[in-house]
Amino acid sequence: MPQHSQASTLFPAETLRDFARRVFVKLEIPANDAVQAADVLIASDLRGIDSHGVARLKAYYDMFRHGLINPRPNIRVVRQTPSTATVDGDKGLGLVVGPAANAIAMDKAAAVGTGWVAVRNSNHFGIAGYYPLQALSREMIGWAMTNSNAMVTPLGGAERKLGTNPIAIAFPAEREPPLVVDMATSVVPFGKIEMARRKGESIPVGWGVDGQGNPTTDPDQIVSDGAILPMGSDLLHGGHKGYCLSAMVDMLSAVLSGSDWGPHVVPFAMPRQTGERRHGNGVGHFFGAMRIDAFIEPAEFRARADAWIREMRGARPVPGGSGPLIPGDPERAAEAIRSKEGVPLLPAVVQELRDVAALTGVAFE
Ligand SMILES: NC(=O)c1ccc[n+]([C@@H]2O[C@H](COP(=O)([O-])OP(=O)(O)OC[C@H]3O[C@@H](n4cnc5c(N)ncnc54)[C@H](O)[C@@H]3O)[C@@H](O)[C@H]2O)c1
To answer: Residue 148 CA: which ligand 1 atom is closest?
Structure first.
């Protein structure tokens, strides 16, 4: 039975995993693919990224209902060299296409040292960080990026032209935990605007602008006709660099793969607000895998990574602070707690899962 704590309710991760899996099966996804898709979603919930886990199940359901996801895609390599490939996802669920393409990148790295895979005709692939974690389990450095539907204005603009376009990369260490970078290239991912709306909270200045380009603290204004700002928010705080990183992700994931880019990406989480749904070349991803022994002795690398991590953790803390974390620490801490205590879901998310249960006939709770 779920336990209640303040506004959220705790659910065992395995309950959510099984529910998501059964919903995907009901949507005619093959059994193994449903297991894979549920694994990506639950990894997000376990890692504390509430916006990208089962909170998105209704959005995936809607995409199926609109016929925008092919439940049984023919995921195929359309061009390749020993170390590179372009994969066509055949409009499959991103939570299935992403892992399949990432596996190709890792297999190529295993064979020739590094593997680089651009993906077109896909959909939302969940958290970018899931994919480099797979590479870590094969003792590799892993990369993942994706574009997403336009919610972000290029710096200086007052119009959505870019997705929140995340980048993830992970490096193994020896005694220290791995270093896992996983971040939107906007100030915040759209999910954090969505969660603020669900909680009825305002958002900080610097997250976004209204339709005229004025700063706003109202998440509804971002959703109606405003935009999220690139990481850094403004020129003074490096907003141009967030814009540059987002451009890099869109170029690699979409312009290079043959997918929709910039404002042409099919809407995912908020169809009504971003206009008519339409069929294009889908969302694009980019994956990389690097075998460490292609560059340096793996034991030497891991020892050097340990030293690097200890150096950063050892930095003199700010007054009253406890010193730096390393990328990946917050998600690892969340996973340690949530895998034991359960995943907290807001009432609005629980209600959406009940709605999905009613719509699909899959029992929940
Ligand atoms: N699929 C998509 O379309 C899409 C789009 C945008 C974002 N996302 C996902 O949303 C998730 C959240 O993104 P975000 O930008 O809010 O991430 P975030 O700001 O919570 O964290 C970004 C990174 O910073 C690290 N970090 C956090 N606090 C730190 C600290 N004090 N010191 C050092 N490192 C620290 C984290 O470990 C993480 O690697 C990610 O998993 C991302 O992949 C997905």
So the answer is: 3
